[in-house]
Amino acid sequence: MRPDLVLKHIGQLATLAGHTDSPKTGEDLRELEIIEDAAIAIERGRIVSVGPTQDVVSQIDEPAPEMLEVEFPGMFAMPGFVDSHTHLVFAGSRENDFAMKLAGKTYMEILEAGGGILNTLRATRAASEDELAKIAFSFADGMLTLGTTTIEVKSGYGLSTEHEMKMLAAAQRLREMLPSEIVTTFLGAHAVPPEYKGRTDDYVDLVVDEMIPSVAKAGLAEFCDVFCERGVFDIEQSRRILLAAKSAGMKLKVHADEIVHLGGAGLAAEVGAVSADHLLMASDDDLEAMRLAGTIATLLPATAFSLDTDYARARDMIEMGLPVALATDFNPNCANESMFFTIALACYKMKMFPREAISATTINAAHAIDRAHQLGSIEVGKRADIIVLDCPNPEYLAYRFATNLIHTVIVAGQVVHTKLGP
């Protein structure tokens, strides 16, 4: 082999290898497949060799003239973070909503008062595609410096065909502006817009009959999501939207059982959703249905933190064999760009172990966006998305919860951020 980049003498390398075809569950979540004094050889953006430094170096036939070798003794390397649930594209901010939360108002009370999603809707509708792309770029670029190399991006603040498509087009433009992998999700069923107040079924008609066909025809979204929640979209309305999207060729996700137990997790299993997200109030029966259906449980602890609510039952889900992923849920109501903070909350508040949280933010998160054959682990043939951390081991990552431990970020074999200097 003639690699163009070799990372060697890495103190510890967590490869997360062996779960490309199926996500990690149960005790396997703690197995990171760690190699000591490790090396990774990269050629044209792909991983061509992984193993102990001596073994990898011995496989190099004749160094290419441009080959770069970098040593990382005493450091910890792992796959780039995969953030499988974000609302990255929007305009405006919600500091006034934050003040209402501090005064004791609930999420639904703020929404009913015209705040929350509807507040962001007004600003997003007023913004151009260019403006939305620039705002989203600033967030995504910040995430990249925090080690997030893949981001799922939802629409959901336009709530009309024109503005939903504008949001998705802005999200797709991030692919031209950043090296990060961007996965787009249509979330037209995020809330009922003011012009349809009291006419939710009519709005569902618009989503099914106009929005989904338009988005699918334009190829703007790979996934379709729905906010299945009391006071937003009920089970039957959510089912109708999801099945219409499935017929249009989209893969499915569900915002499920976040505030009350409505049965969204069971619906996600029924329709074959790739993931069901939030799940704070999901029942055991619905979680078991998800396990049997192969639906990923994507948990969003920063959302519970921002809403000051109880956290999802991560330990119960892991012990029942349900595949668990973690994501930031970055949005105007939960301004969390950091997977480090997400992992810390998962450990402190949901009693996950650091190694479980690493699995949940890499290979399992890749499964949650149907990218596990390309991303989420450090294995031969996969895209070389790698982060090197200024820490000695996986446990240290959660222990230093308020610090950006990133030393070097590599996306598709290119060093995009580093403390190595010029």
Query: What is the CATH class of the largest domain?
Result: Alpha Beta
Secondary structure: helix percent: 25-40%
Shape verdict: globular
Gap between N and C termini, in Å? Answer: 27 Å
State the oligomer.
Answer: single chain
Number of helices: 16
pLDDT under 50 segments (min length 5)? none
| Average residue-wise pLDDT | 96
Radius of gyration: 21 Å
Total count of strands: 16
For the report, how would you describe the main beta sheet?
8 strands, mixed
CATH superfamily of the largest domain: Metal-dependent hydrolases
Describe the structure.
Helix content is 37%, strand content 22%. The protein has 422 residues and is of the alpha/beta class. The chain folds into two domains: 5-79 and 376-418, Urease, subunit C, domain 1 (Roll), CATH 2.30.40.10; 82-368, Metal-dependent hydrolases (TIM Barrel). The chain starts with a strand and ends with a strand. The model has no long low-confidence stretch (mean pLDDT 96).
